[in-house]
Amino acid sequence: MSEQAYFRGTGRRKTAVAQVRLMAGNGAIIVNGKPFEDIFGIPRLQSTILEPLRVTDTLDKFNAIVKVGGGGISAQAGAICHGISRALLIMDESLRPLLRSHGLLTRDARAKERKKYGLKRARKARQYRKR
Predict the structure, then answer these.
(1) How many CA atoms lie within 13 A of 87 on its CB side?
(2) CB count, 10 Å around CB of 98?
(3) What is the pLDDT of residues 20-40, one digit of tens each?
(4) In Å, what is the CA distance from 14 to each residue of 89, 93, 96, 107, 128?
(5) CA angle, corner 31, sides to 114 and 14, nearest 5?
(6) Number of helices (H), then strands (E), in the chain
(7) CA torsion, points 33, 36, 39, 44, in degrees to nearest 10?
């Protein structure tokens, strides 16, 4: 580990963007000035956020300060996970195969498809009647 004060990572998911600062500490994660348990009350979302730290066995070695905006809470959790993964990669390049094998470095590009004119939703059209 290099002698840098903190490591930055930017994560994205749908329209959510998370800016993560990872520094040595005891495992506290602060999201928009609050503990992440207060914002992400669902255990599945908390598990998503902690996944990169759990995979690399650094759960209680780093503190994370996160600014996140846009999207819903599920997209924000995915963006934070992506940002933590990128920050860990900047800290130690040897973690790349481990993070990649769990799919944590891949940006999930799925997003809501836009509505097209003449249709009711993105793909739903009026019912067609031949006779």
Answers:
(1) 29
(2) 16
(3) 999 999 999 999 999 999 999
(4) 22, 26, 23, 10, 33
(5) 15
(6) 4, 5
(7) 160
Which among 66, 10, 15, 74 is positioned nearest to 47, based on CA atoms? Answer: 74
Q: DSSP for 52-97?
A: HHHHTT-TTTEEEEEEEESS-HHHHHHHHHHHHHHHHHHH-GGGHH
Domains observed in the chain: 7-101 (3.30.230.10)
Compute the distance between CA of residue 42 and CA of residue 45 in angstroms, rounded to an integer.
Answer: 6
Q: Which two tokens stand for residue 62?
A: 């780093």
pTM for this model (two decimals): 0.90
Please check whether residue 80 is in contact with residue 11, taking contact to mean a CB–CB distance below 8 angstroms.
yes
Say which residue the tokens 């999207």 belong to: 71
| Amino acid occupying residue 41 | G
Per-residue pLDDT tens digits for 59-86? 999 999 999 999 999 999 999 999 999 9
